[in-house]
Amino acid sequence: MARMTVVCVGAHPDDPESGCAGTLTRYAALGHAVTVVYLTRGERGISGKSLDEAATIRSAECEAACRIIGAKPVFFGQIDGATEVTQAQADAMKRLLTAERPDVVFTHWPVDTHIDHQVASVLTIRAWMSLPTSSLYFFEVNSGSQTEGFLPNTHVDISSVVEQKKAALFAHISQDGQGIWRQHHEIMALWRGREFGVPAAEAFVHLSRDNHARNLPGL
Ligand SMILES: [Zn+2]
Predict the structure, then answer these.
(1) Of the candidates 54, 66, 79, 70, which has an alpha carbon nearest to the alpha carbon of residue 16?
(2) What are phi and psi of 10, to 5 degrees?
(3) Is residue 54 a contact partner of residue 45, using CB atoms and an 8 Å limit?
(4) What is the strand order of the sheet 201-206 is part of?
């Protein structure tokens, strides 16, 4: 198989890991190039720490998580809790994704209780629109609490890489990655696995403008 380029855009450190670390790990293990873009460094995510202190701690956690996944971390440069959609930011995301030339793009589902997740999603959707050969998949984070109204049309079996997904999430020590797994993503992995008929799965909404193979037979 030709080497593909896979890019995942998340709002905060731990979002890409929560949403699709299993799928990204599988891609990387197959020899594909995987880049994780963090919109922010999670500057407001550690109480009692300054923005700079939290950014330093959490950037290191991202790098540790990406080493486990086999991905390259990229920091986009927006600030946690102060993200914005502007023409300039949309242009910057478009430049970044155009340079990466991804075959597959992952980002947040846009209906989400956290505005930073929505910003990451909208900027990525806009950048993807100028990438006519890329497939776009939305992931879910803390469904029911953050992601809302998510009805997946694509599942990935992550049974063989669950331990790597957990380790990538657990690398976010400042965020209690173990708690995120226990309270949200373990339950989700098991449920999506039941939907798909495997022990554990990640689920996505594929924006299927790039795939005409999903028509019903005979129609
Ligand atoms: Zn987040």
Answers:
(1) 66
(2) -125, 160
(3) yes
(4) 72-78, 33-40, 5-10, 104-108, 135-139, 201-206, 154-157
CA of 34 to the centre of ligand 1 (A): 20
The pTM assigned to this predicted structure is 0.95
| 8 Å CB contact between 27 and 6 | yes
Q: What is the pLDDT of residue 213?
A: 52
Q: E strands, the chain, where?
A: 5-10, 33-40, 72-78, 104-108, 135-139, 154-157, 201-206
Q: Containing H/E element for 107?
A: strand 104-108
Which residues are found with C-beta within 5 Å of the ion, ligand 1?
A: 11-12, 15
Helices (H) and strands (E) in the chain, counts: 7, 7
User: Which amino acid, residue 89?
Assistant: Q
For the chain, first and last CA: distance in Å? 31
Residue 216 Cα to ligand 1 middle (Å): 36
Overall average pLDDT of the 126-137 stretch: 91
How far, rounded to the nearest angstrom, does the alpha carbon of residue 204 sit from its chain's CA centroid? 10
Provide CB contacts within 8 A for 191, sequence distance 6+: none
> Would you kindly state where each structural domain of the chain is located, as residue ranges?
5-210
Residue 218 reports pLDDT greater than 90: no
- Ligand 1 centre distance from Cα of residue 144 (Å): 14
Pair of tokens at residue 29: 């293990």
CATH superfamily of 5-210: LmbE-like (3.40.50.10320)
Query: What whole-number distance in Å separates Cα of residue 156 and Cα of residue 174?
Result: 28
Which amino acid is present at 179? Answer: G
